[in-house]
Write a structure and sequence with these properties.
heterodimer, A: 465 residues, mainly alpha, B: 294 residues, alpha/beta, five-stranded parallel β-sheet, two-stranded antiparallel ribbon, 10 helices, 9 strands, 41% helix, globular
Chain lengths: 465, 294
């Protein structure tokens, strides 16, 4: 089930009502939320639910072993992290490594013979495996006690608003919210409703139209397009990926909020950042903070020698790229951001760079991020190269069929620029408006968003990760 | 929970549903249709009467009048030669591997300009959703092609709505006849232009039910195109079979490395699958027109 669909709208209506009704009986309420989450996930495939349950029990047990054992806790940690990574490697990377190895074998004259396995990646696997790893490491670090209730832990792993694409909530953020029947009221309902509406608009209108009108076509065969068309596609994808993923995150946060759960924020106006490190403090925050806490800091972070520090910055970004997808373009995308981070670390203390006007820094950073997205969006390196070639071709013809995309690009850019102000206006209006006016406003906005959306909605981009 | 907050949300839900049913039903139905809502439909559609009004079983747009393709006017054919202005049009197959890799391959040929237009989730069955007759007329006028590739069928094995809240159900002789007439009507439009048309058939699929549907549709395209001088049917049925003649997700590349050729749905093809199909298509096309490709 996905958020931007009528089936979820009906499903969530039932869950929302029963969630608040069953809170009087905390055990029943938690069982209900767990079953609802499994139904939500089971629509994608019941075999995926089995994997999720297996991983939940595995990590719950290892959390207890890590805490109880003094002598073997390191081994238990290694087993738990290794087990999780092995599952991830098998489902997500097996085919990538098999093909790469076989192609290498062929080059050296060997006949490839590795097993061909038809593996379907369970949607959301990368996200809930990262939740599980963070839990085991935190227990090892004695940040908090392991969760005694298997029910609560399985719910932490499966909680449907955060299951498919995050935000990657930590156990100490989520589990306390299950205790004693959880929240008694929705804090800031206006804000959560706004999150859902804004998320829907970003996904259904801006992201979907830009994908259909320009991104899919131009990125498929860039060699068939000129400079303006390619530039339009790059800018459109820059906006599309933001609207798609931040839209998803906002719906997830809003949905969880209406159920009485607070979620970590995932985006903080990333395209307003003026350097690459600042960008990663604002983009997919729950993932970048995960990499900071569980990879960058264990590697030594910045408390090591200069070259090791640069290497750490670079490596974390490359691994982050590989996390996004099993393919060389993702690795190169990560490496670009790694090099960008190293470049910033090398230069930001330089006095000359301080004279850089903020707007110049913003433009450079934005262009860097936008051009790096080419690797992220391209299915292979040849297509990415083709895209750079198309940008540099200096062929300025413009296909009139792409004109519509320009308008959606402008609309999306305006939205990104004024997002904060729109949120304030809506929340102020919601707080000040009469009770009867609120449902009418919400309903009208939902209908308007549906009316403005195309009839076919492309899937959320981050579902494939 | 604060009763006021809950009241606002419940009222909003009711209003959205009411407005959906009375004002936006068609839009919501399309939205729902594309979001794989089918598992709720049997019990929900009657409940959402307004939305159900637009369901395939109830929607009425035309009567079942079959036109024999033999009666269709045939264009006076002129020789098609370089430069080639090529239009590739069709459903999600054209949006994905088959269309993309064909576009890429054709771009590499001598004197070609290639345009590709795809509308996923469309076809010839559901004109109420998307009318390809109008689209192809516009595309022919806009792009002025002399070679056209079309590919349909992936979404066509479903009921066809008729006038008066009736429908023709898939699997009946009436459906075969009506769909044949729709294909012929579409081919009529193409046959009136001085274009060489290549109608690409659907490849073998993983599910046996779906496979049967595609075989039937392919036979309709093949028999219908045989009536037109400028329309050739290209079968991809055998192209994506494995060495044993079965459906396979993985196929060997030219170095013998097994690579994923089909999408997870067992219907669509990956970029690698598209490379295989584009080679086959171009080989067959070269038997008809002087297309010089590396």
């Amino acid at each position: 089930m996905i958020f931007a669909a009528l089936d979820f709208f009906i499903f969530f209506g039932l869950i929302l009502a029963l969630n608040w009704l069953l809170k009087k009986w905390p055990l029943v309420w938690r069982i209900f939320l767990l079953l609802a989450s499994y139904v939500f996930y089971g629509v994608w495939g019941w075999n995926f639910v089995v994997i999720l349950i297996g991983l939940s029990v595995f990590n719950w047990l290892f959390g207890i072993y890590i805490q109880r054992s003094h002598k073997y806790r390191k081994i238990f940690l290694a087993l738990s992290v290794g087990g999780n990574l092995a599952i991830l490697l098998y489902f997500k990377y097996y085919d990538f490594f098999r093909t790469a190895l076989e192609q290498a074998f062929v080059k050296f004259g060997f006949k490839p013979s590795l097993a061909v396995l038809y593996i379907v990646l369970p949607v959301g696997l990368s996200f809930y495996i990262f939740r599980a790893i963070s839990y085991c490491i935190d227990i090892y670090r004695k940040k908090y006690e392991p969760e005694k209730s298997l029910l609560d832990f399985t719910l932490y792993m499966a909680f449907f608003p955060q299951l498919l694409s995050g935000p990657i909530a930590r156990a100490d953020q989520f589990l306390p919210q299950l205790k004693n029947g959880g929240a008694k009221n929705i804090s800031n309902p206006g804000q959560h409703i706004f999150s859902i509406l804004m998320g829907l608009f970003k996904k259904l209108v801006v992201s979907s139209w830009l994908t259909i009108l320009v991104v899919d076509n131009v990125f498929a065969v860039p060699a068939n397009y000129g400079t303006f068309e390619s530039l339009l596609a790059v800018l459109a994808f820059t906006l599309t990926i933001y609207c798609d993923f931040s839209g998803y995150s906002e719906i997830a946060i809003g949905v969880a909020g209406l159920l009485g759960f607070e979620s970590p924020i995932n985006f903080d106006y990333p395209y307003l950042s003026r350097n690459i490190q600042d960008f990663w403090r604002r983009w997919h925050i729950s993932l970048s903070s995960w990499f900071r806490d569980y990879l960058y800091i264990p590697l030594g972070g910045n408390r090591v020698g200069m070259w090791r520090y640069y290497f750490n910055l670079f490596l974390v970004m490359v691994v982050s790229g590989l996390w996004h997808g099993a393919g060389w373009p993702f690795v190169i995308w990560g490496a670009c951001h790694g090099l960008g981070s190293v470049f910033y670390a090398l230069t930001h203390h330089n006095k000359k760079t301080k004279y850089f006007l903020p707007c110049i820094a913003w433009i450079f950073n934005f262009l860097f991020v936008a051009l790096a997205w080419i690797f992220f969006r391209s299915p292979d390196l040849a297509t990415a190269t083709e895209m750079f070639g198309a940008l540099a071709r200096f062929r300025f013809a413009f296909d009139p069929a792409l004109t519509g995309a320009v308008w959606y690009l402008v609309l999306g850019a305006l939205l990104v620029a004024t997002e904060k102000a729109i949120k304030e206006i809506f929340c102020d209006f919601y707080a000040a408006s009469e009770q009867w006016l609120r449902p009418i406003t919400i309903a009208l906005l939902v209908i308007l968003i549906v009316e403005l959306s195309p009839s076919l909605i492309p899937p959320f981009i981050y579902f494939s990760f | 929970m604060d009763k006021k907050d809950l009241g606002v949300i419940i009222a909003a839900y009711i209003l959205i549903l009411v407005m959906a049913v009375f004002f936006q039903a068609q839009k919501f139905y399309f939205w729902e249709e594309n979001m794989k809502f089918s598992y709720f439909k049997p019990w929900l559609s009657p409940w959402l009467a307004g939305v159900a009004k637009f369901s395939p079983k109830a929607l009425g747009k035309e009567t079942c009048q079959c036109k024999c393709p033999a009666d269709a006017p045939t264009a006076v054919k002129k020789e098609i030669g370089a430069p080639f202005t090529i239009l590739i049009a069709g459903d999600s197959f054209v949006n994905g591997g088959v269309g993309v890799e064909l576009e890429r391959a054709l771009l590499g040929c001598v004197s070609t300009t290639v345009y590709r237009t795809s509308k996923p989730s469309t076809g010839l069955s559901r004109r109420d959703y998307f009318d390809w007759r109008e689209e192809i007329k516009e595309l022919l006028a806009l792009r002025q092609p002399n070679v056209v590739y079309v590919m349909f069928g992936a979404n066509d094995g479903q009921g066809i709505p008729l006038e008066g809240n009736k429908a023709v159900y898939y699997g009946t002789p009436e459906w075969d006849s009506l769909y044949f007439s729709r294909v012929s009507e579409f081919m009529d439009i193409l046959s009136k232009e001085n274009v060489e048309v290549f109608w690409i058939g659907n490849p073998i699929a993983r599910s046996s039910d779906y496979r049967e549907k595609m075989e039937k549709l392919n036979s309709i395209y093949a028999s219908s195109s045989a009536k037109y001088e400028n329309i050739k049917f290209i079968s991809l049925w055998e192209t994506l079979k494995d060495s044993k003649g079965n459906y396979s997700d993985y196929l060997p590349d030219n170095k013998g490395v097994m690579r994923l050729a089909r999408e997870s749905d067992g219907i669509h093809v990956t970029d690698f699958g598209g490379i295989i199909t584009s080679k086959e298509i171009i080989l067959k096309v070269q038997q008809v027109i002087p297309l010089a490709c590396p």
